[in-house]
Amino acid sequence: MFGRVTPLRAVLLAATFLLVAACSRLDLAYRNLDLVIPWWISTYVSLDDSQKAWLEPRLQKHLAWHCKTQLPEYVAWLEQLVQLSQRPKLTATDVQGQFVQVREAARDIAVEITPTAIGVAKNLYPQQMGELYVSMDERNVELREEHVEPPFKEQVVARSERMRERVEEWLGPLRPSQQARIDTWAKEQGDYNRIWSDNRENWQKELRSALYSRHNADFPARLTALLQDPETFWTAKYRKAYPVAEDALARLLTDLFNSADEGQRNALRQHIGEMMADLKGLECYPH
User: Fold this and answer.
1) What is the phi/psi pair of residue 269, to 5°?
2) Cα 202–chain centre separation
3) Which of 33, 67, 83, 95 could bond to 284 as cystine, CB 3.0-4.6 Å?
4) What angle do CA 148, 149, 151 make, to 5 degrees?
């Protein structure tokens, strides 16, 4: 609940090719969220039995809300993607429209979980606060070692490989020209890894400041802003780089789709169809 992307948001992000996520069995992931979320939280801070008992019913409430209100919207959204996939060509504007829907859905989730996040934070002991900070620092070191410290050429290669793997899960094997397009995109991102990492750590700095004063009257408002309006805390460099990077991603996905042959487009439609079936097959899904 304290990171930039919650487990519930991860499920949302996995729901679309347009964000090239890598979850091929969304049904399995969703059915295990009640286990995954506590595990994810425990990677940052160890809750005691009373804290877990307080969190459990609220977690179940959030999952029930998400399944009842959000999953039907995801299915409708995936149906839109099927319609888009049937067009001869897409424009970058078409893809950017999907990004907007992702952001809106992610904010809905943030609004839903904010009261629980505030409650968890207020009840953390000083020792748990230290544990949280150490976990965040260790994760930051790992991310910088993986994404920021390698030479630029290595970053480009890794960025290209990650994108290729994600796209091929949806389109199948890529042709050399499509791989070349990804390579160009990866190189054009420049020093985005560092800008993204600096921004992430800046958000965490604001979070630490808020948590330090978690017993003050203004704490709920501060944490609410951090979770629901994270853009407010973006660094100047990230604020400038983000729309450029999003536009580049939209153009990349547009070019890949427009260059896809019929076999790749069929693979895309089949994958989207499987995700829709997985969501509709969940026991909690409203029928």
Assistant:
1) -65, -40
2) 18
3) 67
4) 100
